[in-house]
Amino acid sequence: GAVVSQHPSWVICKSGTSVKIECRSLDFQATTMFWYRQFPKQSLMLMATSNEGSKATYEQGVEKDKFLINHASLTLSTLTVTSAHPEDSSFYICSASSQESSYEQYFGPGTRLTVT
Amino acid sequence: GENVEQHPSTLSVQEGDSAVIKCTYSDSASNYFPWYKQELGKRPQLIIDIRSNVGEKKDQRIAVTLNKTAKHFSLHITETQPEDSAVYFCAATERGGYQKVTFGTGTKLQVIP
Question: Which distant-in-sequence residues (6+ apart) come within 8 Å of A36 by Cβ?
Answer without folding.
Answer: A44, A45, A46, A47, A92, A93, A94, A95
